[in-house]
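Thread amino acids onto this structure.
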């Protein structure tokens, strides 16, 4: 339907969507104002997406808080600074500071307001002020939609900061979205707590105890693995013969390379240590001409679909399946 000037149309605001936008957008004003007033950081970028709302804070601006020698006091936003800004933003929200919009026809008039950002337009300027105009929580030119008071934002929560092109990017949420974010994170913690039979408050201690136990278990495992590989090295020396093949189900390829390092000088010809679950053969020899392991992978094992390679004294061949591995071992043991 084509519209012509003077037509009347009926429109309806999607209020849930509008209010969600208003909460997030006004929250962005207040957080930007807090970072600016506390640290002199300027908001140089703003993104309000479905997944996240972010602002990029730059301390390389003229209003940045300075050291006595004139250098900027802050290079980037730390987590502590972000938490201080979050606290200040929520103070403004909880004080239910009024949010008003004033309209100015010229730049000169608008510039009488305590603006956070320089104006980029000359006429028909709307200026949004949050709180007392003599000491506002935020004041800047804006044509967005805002609630009539800060209390309607409900809450503002920062949940991540990261460096971005010399600036600091703040990820946060406001209002209904902040509540959903809190609920999701709480549910995750609650589920982890239930799995660990722990209250959420005890989770850090519980996690530290788990890490310690995990470290002890790994140490024990390494000690036992070392004994196992040492014993297997001795056994290999006892049964050593050219083209020997040994199968392993409980040692990894890395374990077999540890054995290979020890047994290599005692190998008169190539031998094959097979890590069965990984369909991988570790070849070992003393490396003399004609017994090179890397060459065997290239010249023989690759013919059975193996990938891999290595040095003269040891090499690995990874087979696509058990049947290829078995065919290779047949060829390996019958090779002259
Ligand atoms: Zn605005």
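Threaded sequence (336 positions):
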């Amino acid at each position: 339907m084509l519209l012509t000037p003077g037509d009347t149309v009926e429109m309806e605001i999607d209020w849930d969507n509008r209010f969600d936008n208003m909460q997030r957008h006004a929250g962005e004003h207040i957080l930007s104002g807090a970072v600016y007033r506390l640290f002199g950081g300027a908001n140089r970028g703003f993104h309000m997406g479905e997944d996240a709302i972010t602002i990029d804070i730059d301390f390389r601006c003229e209003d940045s808080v300075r050291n006595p020698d004139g250098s900027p006091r802050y290079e980037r936003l730390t987590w502590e600074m972000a938490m201080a800004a979050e606290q200040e933003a929520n103070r403004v929200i909880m004080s239910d500071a009024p949010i008003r919009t004033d309209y100015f026809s010229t730049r000169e008039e608008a510039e009488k307001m305590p603006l956070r950002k320089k104006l980029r337009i000359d006429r028909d300027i709307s200026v949004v002020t949050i709180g007392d105009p003599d000491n506002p929580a935020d004041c800047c030119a804006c044509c967005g939609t805002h609630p009539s008071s800060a209390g309607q934002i409900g809450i503002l929560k920062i949940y991540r900061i990261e460096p971005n092109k010399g600036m600091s990017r703040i990820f946060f949420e406001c209002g209904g979205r902040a509540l959903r974010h809190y609920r999701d994170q709480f549910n995750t913690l609650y589920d982890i707590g239930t799995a660990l039979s722990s209250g959420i408050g005890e989770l850090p201690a519980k996690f530290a105890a788990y890490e310690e136990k995990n470290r002890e278990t790994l140490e024990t495992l390494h000690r036992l693995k070392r004994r196992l590989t040492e014993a297997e090295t001795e056994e290999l020396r006892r049964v050593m013969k050219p083209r020997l093949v040994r199968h392993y189900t409980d040692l990894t390829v890395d374990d077999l390379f540890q054995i290979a390092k020890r047994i290599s000088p005692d190998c008169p010809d190539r031998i094959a240590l097979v890590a069965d679950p990984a369909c991988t053969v570790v070849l070992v020899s003393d490396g003399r001409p004609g017994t090179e392991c890397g060459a065997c992978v290239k010249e023989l094992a690759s013919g059975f679909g193996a990938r891999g390679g290595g040095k003269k004294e040891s090499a690995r061949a990874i087979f696509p399946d058990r049947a290829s591995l078995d065919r290779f071992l047949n060829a390996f043991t019958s090779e002259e």
